[in-house]
From TrEMBL, chain A:
Stored Pfam families: FIBP (PF05427)
Organism placement in taxonomy: Eukaryota, Metazoa, Chordata, Craniata, Vertebrata
Protein name: Fibroblast growth factor (acidic) intracellular binding protein a
Entry GO terms, CC: nucleus
Lineage top rank: taxon: Eukaryota
Amino acid sequence: MSVELDVFVVNTTIMDEEVYQLWLDGYTVNDAVKVRMEGGVLEGCEASAEVLHSDTMDQYRTFQMCERLLHSPVKLANQLLFQIPPHRQVMLIERYYAFDSVFVREVLGKKLSKGTKKDLDDVSAKTGVTLKSCRRQFDNFKRVFKVVEELKGPLVENIRQHFLLSDKLARDYAAIVFFANNRFETGKKKLHYLTFQDFAFCAGQLISNWTVGALDNMVEDMDVDLEKEFLQDLKELKILITDRDLLDQHKSLVCTALRGKTKAFNEMEANFKNLSRGLVNIAAKLTNTKEVRDFFIDLVEKFIEPCRSDKWTAGDMRLYLTHYTNSAHVLDTFKHQVVWDRYMGVIKSCILKMYHD
Amino acid sequence: MPGKLKAKIVAGRHLPVMDRASDLTDAFVEVKFGNTTFKTDVFPKSLNPQWNSEWFKFEVDDEDLQDEPLQITVLDHDTYSANDAIGKVYIDIDPLLSCEAATVISGWLPIYDTIHGIRGEINVLVKVDLFNDLNRFRQSSCGVKFFCTTSIPRCYRVALVHGFVEELVVNEDPEYQWIDRIRTPRASNEARQRLISLMSGELQRKIGLKVLEMGGNAVVGYLQCFDLEGESGLVVRAIGTACTLDKLSPGTAPNTTTHTNTHTLPNTAPTSNACNSPSKDSKEPVFSEDPPHSLSGPPTPLRTLPSSSPPPFSPSKPCSRQSSSSDTDLSLTPRIERFVSSPGVFLCPSSPTLSFDSPSLPSSGLILCSIGSALRAYTPPPLPSVQSEGSVLRKTVSFSEELMLAASGMGSGGSVGKEAGPLKTLLRQHTQSALEQREFPIFTLTCFPPGFLVHVGGVVSTRSVKLLDRIHNPDEPETRDAWWEEIRQEIKSHAKALGCHAVVGYSESTSICEEVCILSASGTAAMLNPRFMREGCLDTGGSDHRLSRQPHPGMVGSERGEGEVSSTWLGFEDASPPSCGFVHIPYDEFNMPFPAQLTYCYHCRRQKVPDVLFTTIDLPAEAEVTGKGCLIQARLCRTKKKAQGEVNATSISNLLPFMEYELHTQLMNKLKLRSMNALFGLRIQISVGENMLLGLASATGVYLSALPAPGGIQIAGKTPSDLSYDQHISTMQKRIDDTIAKNKELYNIHPPKLFTLDPEAFTGLNTECIEEVVGSPIPDRQRSSRLFRSTSESSDELSELDLSHGKKDAFVLEIDDTDAVEDIQSLLTDAPIPAGFYSCNTEVMPGIHNWTSGLQMFTSVRVYRLSNANLTNQGLNKIFTDLCENLLKSLYFKLRSMIPCCLCHLNFTVAVPEEELIQVAVTAVAMSFDKETQQAADKALTRGSGENEEQLQFSMEMCGESTISNNQPTAKPSGVPESAMVHSSRVSSSERCSPLPEGRSRSLRSTRSLPCGAPVTVVKMTPLSFLPGTRIVKYLGIINMFFIRETTSLREEGGVSGFLHSFIAEVFAMVRAHVAALGGNALVSYSMKECVFMENPNKNQAQCLINVSGDAVIFIRESDQEAIPPLLTSRQTSSTGADGTT
């Protein structure tokens, strides 16, 4: 005797959160049954593995049918096929769009293309996230990217409204979209120590300060692309390193302020010119799209690594960057205060976030 | 020309992409009614079109309005090729035709395609302007209300119960027409859907006409079924109970919370008043004043009867053995050419008696007659005798008024039947005649107003095997009509044999396999209170009959003047107090129609009651129950040789009685094992397949306090010589005793010691036993005759017993072969229900009162393939039993989050769709209840049982508790799925007009624009006639939908399970959408009457047909009585408001 057909349909769709997670994680039905058995769902119920299997199958089918709706979460609220209580809908969406940080770290900044999707099996093998789950996460990134790509208005807000995500998750997606759009390099070995959250923070900084939307919040692609004019203006900062007087003046101002306040003063003084050149060169190169991609690697190579080898503490870093930024205002011949602040504000918070082991 | 139908197409959303190139759709809509079609403009390049059409107006006959559905087709415009259909929506106009139901249909309805399923939604507005037609000869019956609910609907009061209505229409099945070979599956499916929709409309109209003719204004317990007879056609048939209902004004609307409280009762209509005042609904003629009507009651003498005659007639002689037996044989006479045979079976309590009809076909006569003679076969009387009997009965109508009064005086003593004089006999005949002058004194109701049911005799059922023949003339479905008529006659005569004049809880069903069809009917023989049949009245609406455990003070007062009636209510002085009256035997003690042990009623000690009672009705509210009930199922599988035509039909009809017998035995054993003594809601289904027959009997077992405590089960060995065998038997006995003890604990069955003698004590001491043979296949005739002899012996024994002392006999299972051993094994292996769960197949579980609002309706379907072709009956039985048990286990597991909860109205349907396939479908509702208050109630119950005073106290306590539980319906922490939705449903109705979330306006491209989103109204669905903790304020009309779904890409849709899963989900969605469009927020009395699944995996194809029905209602929460129900007007603005937004 074999069960040919076995369905269970309810008027108000029941979804077991545990099974949903297993499904999202890409477990097969059999594996999910195993996990559930070990989890002890059957305790207290006089049910067999068969019952569990049937239940898991039912739920998996329901999820599969729901998946189409989850692709445009707004539909989930006014579709008629499944009667799902609102709080459950929220849970379904939030979990569906959740991602593994190990996975996202692998694809962050990569082009969300078919080519990348083909390589997902490598990613899966490397991260231990099942291929199915990798594909779901990748498709989610791509879907969000495609939808918000052409929308006006703030990125985070658009994501939140079109995908009904929580603020936190919407911000993360904004970062992913931003990275994918600008193709920032994040995969180099030197960047491995950085977590997704580090990058997401930096992305947030860049979005709110360097993009078109930072000035005018009703432009298309406002949050996705960096503001061209601003990048042009950044070239003007070069004077800080090309003008010898200015460089010396800047150095002495910073050193005066720092003297006696940190143990790493000597190293700071010795490296000032190098570090300053590094930061200003990064700024000057940003007009070139290719260089934009290397923004993070440059930050690490030109600034973070030298400081780390000199054993600066996080406090040292903060102190240094604060004075480095502020001292520029005192330079009488330096006319680009606004651009400098806009640039250094982001650089400072990014470096502080990225300066860890 | 009395009607104008208006439709407006507002918008569409979520449409599928029809143009691959642009990923868009150029949609337009065709609106068709009858032969008139209108079209909207094409709304180009959008998946969310806004048509905002003008009002399309159809001027049509009301006859057409009733028959035809409004058909809305959404198409994709194509300049160069034919327009592609996206899908259709059929809208049943019927709810708009009754002034008391819905006034507008407005909302988002799923666009359905039989190949692709739901493809987006469409927003429509439909209205009807109806002009009154006073033509006497009209063919329409607009305004007659239909209810699937098998009790008096919650916001109505019944003024009159007119009786049985039935109708049947036949047609050729489009699937089998020649044209089907050349048309697409889609066209064929749509033709079928449309035809069935038309046929059900016509059927409903015809039934409505009959109701109007009888003077009624509503059909309650409307049951419509399809018979897909294949080649020979399509039959749509319906039965129901015609009533005159009065709408209760909102102020006095009854409290519908049921089972929890008895407080709100309308004071407006005391029985006596309502009795004399004609119903307010003046367009309905009063029954007896309708002269042209053939069934009309006799004028004056009977009208006085309601107020003066005692409702409970004590059993007396008139229904003599002779007359009943002659009647029983009515069906013996062959009437139709292809009639094969119809074995009728009484399903009476105690040992079952089989009454065989000798077959009419000479070819099969030999076999059956020999069996028949071994039984107590009746000698077939000539047909005319029936007619003469009819005429005699009709004469009784002319009794004079004086006689009636005298008779009622006599009846007041509450004396036992045999003392009654001839006058009483006459009286009895008289009331009987009131019913019997109708062709069929049959009622589809399962729940009755208090006092309606006087006595219950037992289950009567009939099955008949027919060979299907092509229906030649669809306009004259005489053959099918005659078949059913014959069956109903037989049911009626069975009821008479039980000393009853009516059948309640009646239902009909069929099982078809190729050309063989089993027609089945069953019901409960009962004596009814004649008051309800005429202009008398009952206040059912007022005192919710489920609840009221004690009379409403006002009611008692008003009735006291009438003598008898009031004492009925007060309970003790009268012969038949309400809490036990219905179990008193209606038949003659000394001429019992079947062997049964009688004792004096354990409640009133005045009248005789049987030891066990089987019924098809719901547990009457006034019944006193000890402990809780539970679902009891008997399952049986019998192989049969493949055969054709008459040979096949004969072999099936030969098997049927044995199956009935065995199912009955199983039921009885399981009942005893649970220490219970009555079954309610009994439903026996026998399904026929090519090489097997399946039998499934489901019922809810309870312990009725008025009936004697059931004895234990004793096992007797046939061959006591073997020592190890003895040992085996004694271990078995011990297991059975343990199980009984455990069950008593589980179901909380602790009968009051006052009357009950501990049955345990008797198990060992018994001297006299009723011999029962455990059901086992009957291999040869010798055995079978032995079997039946044993039962008849037992009946002989019976008459010698002294039954007056409530002595209990043990129930003996005799083990004489391995089969029986296995049967006992299977008896014991019924898996126990997990803790926290209860289950029943009736409306509510006896013993559980404090429901929370958490409920979950579900449907589960399973198909099993029997891999081994050469299975024995035993093996098949095991498989079938396991299958049902596993299904139940699965349900318990899935619903574990609702604990403590009860699965109510568990309705199993079995079918044999193909050789070696068994299909089981279950629909039920899981309702959670409050544990803490439950225990308190239990205590109260045990305390209160038996004594009236305490009973009063009990119900008052219940009131208090109910308010507590009602005040915090959502306070339950355990994740009850729907409890949270309750809240949202209220919100959604108030927020319907709310503007779009702001972010939408930002979208750039119009295609990205998101469909406007008024939140979807939450629609609850339940197979019950009520929703706990709520009050139904309006019935919006009947929902009766038929869908076909087909696929040619079965694998891609997730195989058979994926296909059916999405189809059932789609059906639910469409039902909900239609309920919401009518303005409702729930569907009660939901049932899935048909689920026919066919597959062909090799061709990657599958097809499924589903028929669902129910009553769309508006309910409000009990806790906020003042809340305004969703207003229809606001709904309209909301939908138009939604138009402009996208």
